[in-house]
Amino acid sequence: MANTGKVKVGIIGSRFEGDIHCASFQLMPEEAEVVAIASPTPGHAEQLAKKYGIPRVFRDYKEMLKEPDIEMVTITAPNYLHAQMTIDIANAGKHVVCEKPLCITLAEADEMIETCKRKGVLLAYAEELFFTPKYVKAKEMADQGGFGKVYLVKQSEKHFGPHSDWFWDVERSGGGALMDLGCHGIAFCYWFLGRPAIKSVYAQLGTYVHGAKTKGDDDGVCMIEFENNAVGMVEVSWAKRGGMSDRSEIYGEGGVTYADLHMGNALPTYSEYGFGYAVEKAPSTQGWSYPVFEEHWNYGMPQEMRHFARCVRGKETLQATGEDGRAVMQVLYAAYASAGAGKKIQMPYKPTAKTPIGEWLGKRGK
After folding, report:
1. What is the CATH number of domain 133-297+327-360?
2. Which of 59, 162, 178, 353 has its Cβ near the most Cβ atoms within 10 Å?
3. Is 60 exceeded by the pLDDT of residue 192?
4. What integer pLDDT is reported at residue 365 of this predicted model?
């Protein structure tokens, strides 16, 4: 008999993103419930389990995969672990939700997609911008013809650096700000325009502020030329002071719209003394800050997790797939190659380096 109750979820990872996944499932609890969390870091999983009332804790995610009632597992671990974890989850017969970026090489992406298909499980790519309410509304207006022919889609995500140390290590993260933040913008432009074929990629990247911490890029711009004669412009930064900035702009021959995920949902606030939390990546709450109301909801994360659970039950068709994640990886490779070579890269691009950032680092070292 088919299971019709709530989807039982296990989460791998207990830090920043793991907390967001736990909170997101609780914000929209009618389709799924988190029953287990796995993390190798002593005490972390226990703290998160206590915070969210999660009944089971594991130090080894492979032990969690033995639990027969768990149907879907979300991965919030460092990028270099995504591929093996996905393969292990699929081999255990469970559906996979993999955080962005999908992995760090195209070969890994292919193996992840093939394994999940062979095992008959879903491979969901956790790109919340496909579910962010403001962005969904902008796409709805565009699809209804509100802007006429859309010729430029811009997406920008900037802050002063990641929340965990492993992001600075390109061996574990696979890249810098472009890999971390640009994967959002690339996916957004691709999705917003209806997933057209990609003609070329051009990127300008640099390490301007955090050279002592990372070999990776900390600021950059990526331009994507699509076959439908539209352009995607992706701006990223780990060098911007003042907390998170996340916005998009849509330009068509008959209209324009702007969607800012923070200022329109923020409370301009001044405090001499500071307070608990304002918004992701804000370094302090003393002085002026911009606390965001219902932050996770504004980002679209609860809606995303609810959608994935409904897909497990066959109620919806997967909107963010492993193939989407692979398409992003192709652009990341071309973008790093473009930044290294200082020229536009025609697509499809055949990688010459092991990882996307290797295309850039190899040129910088010469």
Report:
1. 3.30.360.10
2. 178
3. yes
4. 55
